[in-house]
Write a structure and sequence with these properties.
The protein starts with a strand and ends in a 12-residue tail after the last helix. A five-stranded parallel beta sheet has the order 8-9-10-7-11, sandwiched between helices. It is α/β, with parallel strands linked by helices and 907 residues long. Helix 16 crosses helix 17, helix 32 packs antiparallel against helix 33 and helix 39 runs antiparallel to helix 40. It contains 41 helices and 13 strands. The relative contact order is 0.03.
């Protein structure tokens, strides 16, 4: 069924016209067609259709009219069947129609196709299409509703498009047949539309190109008179500039010279920012290689980079530079024909299209740009391989999210723009960032007075960081400065797909909104890849293969294969962690898209639960390794996973699923202590203790002990004692001997600091007794020995302290804990100091400080330096003592914390 609206309203079914008897019935149908599938409320229909002649019972009259109209539109529908075309929708009605259901749809699609053909230097094909679609017009659009207000805007829109189509047809004919062939038609169009400066400009150019300069200038003078007398305005700057070009006989107005290199490159209407090095690099590759592929995620600027490079190379290719846009091509079978049409390949019915294309290009010196290959990758790769082999002077520049993987392919990653520093830079440096420069230039095109204050630039820096430096996303954000200030845009980027929806109308559909750009890439994945991709949205700081496998419920081999697919399609990137292992991440915009899709699929809670469980197990493993020979790698892994650990704990608290979060908090204690993250540690531990509210979650006792340690670090011993007692109670109730040993070690430390070294020694012995029964108790024994050193020193038992230190050193060396060895060396320095062996104390302390600094334990290094300072002062070397004290103070100031009471002797 087809609806004709480019003239009097008609319905055609199977080639026959369907009679519309009632004028009101026709009006209802017209109003719904204009709505283009959107629902029109009953009240709006009544108002638009009946205007001032509303019937007595308008709703009943409308319902009756709709029922009659349904009989015409759906003659085969049985009573009781749901409507399929004219739908009731809430309080209104809408038409459910297929694409191109009206001749207006067909006309607009043809007009868009013709524009693309003209941009691709195919005026002959454009003229054919325009001639066909202009024949669809049988009069004025919605001609029988000329006096209905509801149709006015749509009639004017379509009539404007019709004039535009006639202008484009004349443009095509001018290129095909020359100026003399179109001047008469242009004069007629000027008579019909005397106020359209675009038509008059076309006529002026055509007359000038036909050698009729005086007449072209007369057209301008006539235009000026008409506009002044009838509209009270002057000709536009563009028309005045054209007059000046004609007066000066500007060579740019001459007809294109057939001897110039051919091509169809569009002009870039904005400056390309931040790609100077890339242009130079790609240009160099094109001089050496015959196939160069620009790779990168959607919106990274691959097409603009390709056009910039190609524009600089026009004179190098005798047979032209040709751009083939593949983004609107869905059928792989049409790729060869699409390329052939762009390069103006003659048809040869007796040969296959590919054979004809290869033969046509075989001797040509040409640059062929294949733009947006990712959705047709296999077909494009086959074509490129054939062309490269058979056409020795042909050079191909491709853009794709995935490599073609063809022999001889030179791949170039088009990376996001460089971002400003993370906030530590002064505001004055932000202008130097290419990403900030892009935002500000695009924003200035909307408002030349755009705010450039430090606060505004800082907001722009936050915007471009949040958008990962992706040029498309930055340009879409800059476009919103028509309504919002940069600081407001930055605040709204949590819902970036809603706010970044204002791309230019002449952009490809896939780049008009951020949602479109990401959805294009997502749509290229198969269902298994899509399911895998969206689950990766829960990772807040990158991931390794094991984590991806755990969260997506797949094997590591399966996860690696799928990650490989995402990386190859520019949907994930590979980074090296500080421990030298491979990690992967999604750009934040891609991650948020995946997370949104995950929520929409109702799978977020299940996926986040797997994420939290994985990181609970990961934190347990890392906590065990951080006190052994592999501790440097474990510490690095903790740093790499910080964002994921925080995300898992956040979800654990929000969902009330406390077990994984408590384990992460408990097993992050040693890491937080090592890193000096006391504020963060106290925040998380406090939140979980509040949330558990008496519930005995596994590892709660261990976590509570860590809370007591950190409180003690900050000097609140009274609160620390209360927490340690609670930790011991929980450990006993949970029958967790490891947590019990750790809690008792806390009691020993607090007893010593509180002035009771005898109790400390006694408790340490109990800790050792419990730890001997534990599979991983060797470290706890060495820790108790190390603490005994300080307690025995406080008692004045120097020999006992020496013996305890040696036992502790042997234990920590056995398990391979370099950081803890630094603690024991500090304890040995304290023993030597008490014995009066100042040189030995300084030697032990310097060795300890060097070791501790090498593993990143600045706090113990500070403690050791202070012990060395005490020894130097005791020996009478005041200058050296003051220098060592300054070192200790600087180390502590860098970490923002006091000396640890764990390490200090109280005697």
């Amino acid at each position: 069924m087809k609806f004709a609206v480019l003239g009097p309203l008609q319905i055609e079914r199977d080639g026959d016209l369907v009679a519309l008897r009632s004028g009101r019935q026709r009006a209802v149908l017209a109003r719904l067609l204009i709505a283009n599938g959107e629902t029109v409320s009953a009240d709006r229909l009544i108002q638009d259709v009946w205007a001032d002649e509303v019937p007595t019972d308008p709703r009943n009259t409308l319902q009756h009219g709709v029922a009659q109209l349904r009989k015409l539109l759906e003659p085969g529908r049985s009573r009781g069947d749901s409507p399929r075309v004219l739908m009731s929708d809430g309080t209104g009605y809408r038409l459910a129609l297929a694409d191109h259901a009206t001749d207006a749809d067909e006309f607009e699609a043809g007009l868009a196709q013709a524009r693309t053909m003209l941009e691709s230097a195919r005026p002959d094909a454009a003229a054919d299409v325009l001639g066909t679609v202009l024949e669809l017009w049988r009069g004025q659009a919605y001609e029988d509703f000329a006096y209905n207000e509801f149709a006015t805007a749509e009639r004017e829109r379509l009539d404007e498009l019709r004039v535009g189509a006639r202008e484009l047809l004349l443009d095509a004919q001018l290129e095909l047949q020359g100026p003399d062939a179109v001047i008469s038609d242009l004069e007629g169009l000027v008579a019909e539309h005397p106020y359209r400066e675009g038509v008059r400009a076309r006529l002026m150019r055509a007359m000038y190109q036909a050698g009729r300069q005086a007449e072209a200038l007369q057209v301008y003078r006539d235009t000026a008179v008409v506009l002044s007398e009838e509209l009270g305005i002057s000709p536009s700057p563009e028309l005045r500039a054209l007059e000046s070009q004609i007066l000066l006989q500007d060579p740019a107005l001459a007809q294109p010279n057939a001897s110039r290199p051919q091509g169809n490159l569009p002009a870039l209407n904005t400056r390309l920012i931040g790609r100077e090095d890339d242009i130079e690099r790609v240009s160099a590759f094109l001089h050496r290689e015959r196939l160069v592929t620009l790779l990168g995620p959607g919106g990274s600027g691959k097409t603009r980079l390709a056009l910039s490079v190609a524009g600089d190379a026009l004179d190098e290719y005798a047979d032209g530079v040709w751009l083939v846009r593949l983004d609107t091509l869905a059928d792989p079978a049409l790729v060869n024909s699409a390329v052939g049409a762009v390069v103006r390949m003659p048809e040869a019915a007796e040969r296959q299209v590919l054979d004809t294309l290869v033969s046509f290009l075989s001797a040509k010196r040409m640059l062929l740009i294949l733009d947006n290959c990712e959705h047709l990758i296999e077909t494009v790769a086959e074509l490129v391989e054939r062309l490269i082999d058979a056409c020795p002077q042909l050079v191909i520049l491709a853009t794709s999210q995935e490599a073609l993987n063809v022999r001889g392919e030179q791949r170039v990653q088009v990376r996001p723009l460089a971002l400003p520093d993370d906030g530590s830079s002064p505001f004055d440096d932000l202008d130097a960032s290419l990403a900030v420069e892009l935002f500000m230039e695009r924003a200035a095109a909307i408002d030349p007075e755009i705010d450039r204050s430090p606060a505004s630039l800082n907001a722009v820096a936050n915007i471009v960081r949040a958008l990962d430096g992706i040029p498309l996303a930055i340009e879409l954000a800059a476009a919103r400065t028509d309504l919002l200030m940069p600081v407001e845009i930055a605040q709204r980027l949590g819902d970036r797909f809603q706010i970044l929806d204002a791309g230019p109308r002449d952009a490809p559909q896939r780049q008009r909104t951020l949602q479109d750009a990401v959805a294009w890439s997502y749509g290229l994945l198969d269902p298994a890849e899509q399911a895998f991709f969206v689950r990766l949205g829960v990772f807040a700081g990158g991931f390794d293969v094991a984590a991806a496998a755990a969260v997506t419920d797949s094997s590591e081999d399966e996860a690696l294969a799928l990650i490989s697919r995402l990386v190859s399609r520019s949907l994930a990137t590979r980074d090296l962690s500080i421990s030298g292992t491979s990690r992967y991440r999604l750009l934040e915009t891609l991650r948020q898209f995946g997370l949104h899709e995950l929520v929409e699929a109702g799978q977020e809670a299940e996926t986040r639960a797997r994420h939290a469980e994985h990181y609970a197990e990961q934190s347990l493993r890392l906590d065990r390794e951080i006190v052994g020979a592999n501790q440097a790698a474990a510490f690095a892994a903790f740093i790499a996973e910080e964002d994921n650990l925080r995300g898992a704990m956040d979800w654990s608290l929000a969902a009330g699923e406390l077990a994984p979060g408590v384990r992460i908090a408990a097993r992050s204690g040693r890491f937080w202590d090592w890193r000096g993250s006391l504020a963060e540690a106290n925040t998380w531990l406090g939140r979980f203790m509040d949330a558990t509210d008496g519930r005995l979650v596994p590892e709660l006792g261990f976590m509570t002990t860590w809370a007591s340690f950190f409180v003690a670090e900050l000097g609140d011993l009274e609160s620390a004692r209360g927490l340690t007692a609670e930790a011991r109670r929980i450990a006993l109730e949970q029958e967790d001997d490891y947590a019990l040993a750790v809690a008792m070690a806390g009691e020993a430390m607090q007893a010593r600091i509180g002035g009771d070294p005898d109790s400390a020694v006694r408790i340490d012995e109990e800790v050792r007794a419990i730890s001997r029964e534990l599979a991983d108790g060797r470290w706890m024994i060495a820790w108790a020995d190390n603490h005994d050193v300080l307690a025995l020193l406080a008692k004045g038992d120097l020999e006992g302290a020496q013996s305890a230190a040696e036992a502790s050193l042997a234990g920590f060396r056995e398990v391979g804990d370099a950081r803890a060895i630094g603690w024991v060396l500090t304890a040995l320095a304290q023993v030597a100091l008490k014995k009066g062996d100042y040189a030995g104390a300084i030697e032990f302390a310097r060795e300890s400080a060097a070791l501790s600094l090498s593993v990143g334990d600045g706090r113990n290094a500070a403690t050791a330096s202070q012990v060395a300072a005490d020894a130097a002062r005791a020996s009478g070397d005041v200058d050296r003592a003051e220098g060592l004290e300054a070192e200790a103070a600087a180390l502590l100031a860098a970490r923002g914390m006091p000396f640890s009471p764990w390490r200090r002797s109280q005697g």
